[in-house]
Amino acid sequence: MRLSRQQFLAGLLSLPLGGRALAQTNTDRQPIRLILSTSPGGGADTSTRLIAPLLTELLGGQSIVIESRSGGAGLIAGGVVAREAPDGHTFLVDITTHSVNPALKRPMPYKVLQDLVPVTQIVQGANVLVVHPSLQVNSLSDFVALAKERKGTLSYASSGSGSAQHLAMEMFKARTELEMTHVPYRGGGPALIDLVSGHVQAFFAFIPTAAPHISDGKIKALATTGSSRAQSMPNLPTIAESGYPGFESYDWNGIFAPAGTPDSAIRRLQAAVAEALKNSNLRQRLADIGMEPVGSTPEDFRAFIERQIAMYSDIVQRLGLKVE
Predict the structure, then answer these.
(1) Which domain holds residue 68?
(2) Contact (Cβ atoms closer than 8 angstroms) between residue 301 and residue 309
(3) Residue 324: inside a domain
(4) Number of domains observed in the structure of the chain
(5) 3-class DSSP state of 40
(6) What is the pLDDT of residues 25-67, one digit of tens each?
(7) Residues facing residue 255 across a β-bridge
(8) Where are the alpha helices (DSSP H) in the chain?
(9) Neighbours of 3 (CB within 10 A)
(10) Which of 181, 214, 242 is the last residue of a domain?
(11) Do 109 and 130 lie in a common domain?
């Protein structure tokens, strides 16, 4: 039986939760605002809305207000939060572009890791390399061979210049010595539509979004980008096990606070996120949308961001990429 979203959320709140000390010590009834850098309906929005009711429970009834301030490669939302009072009531939920932007040297209204400090990584999710059926390839090796045979004539989509999907394909092109034309779109939805229509030939797509089109035979899946096989596509190999060991690329989202936010407020929210992510029903729902729970500490999240910036900076420098 398929539960409605309302039934699912109600079921989550009916389950016993740990972390009762969080709730017992809370006397703050001012809402916590989570400012999203993405549009409603995307992966970050969905995962944030799934976890929010559990956070309210764990924080002793303190309400969570979710606001979308999309646009500008995440810089609009980031700029808003960086200017907020660091009182522990306003936080940013940002995605992979948080570490891509400084690598691309975009003009930014704030400094990453200085004006916005890491709280916790919520989730991460692999993408899937999908191609149009007209290519008549059945494996990653088939695709690489065809792309080399048709040197420079194939095109690939991305959800935007400098996006994680764009840089993932550039990483893959560098590993395989392929030449393909980049076609950036304003989001993954339009990119996927044009792939289905045959206007582009390949795309690193968000797994849940691509899955219905894969099932219908409108596009073909070749490999996923994680270190292990995706739970929702267990029969599909990863790029790493398809002949390119070490290749790994994820989309992720996490929480950041304005610099100067009390450490107690940061630790309290991080602890609530980590506790909520232990909930088995929530973990299953996240798996259903291609996301793996993380719940890292502020220190671990900072180290992760630093590694991401270094990795993307190396890619950008080696390939001479610029914001288009």
Answers:
(1) 5-125+251-319
(2) no
(3) no
(4) 2
(5) coil
(6) 445 679 999 999 988 877 788 899 999 999 999 999 999 999 9
(7) 93, 120
(8) 5-14, 20-24, 43-58, 75-82, 97-103, 140-149, 164-176, 188-197, 207-215, 263-276, 280-288, 298-319
(9) 12
(10) 242
(11) no
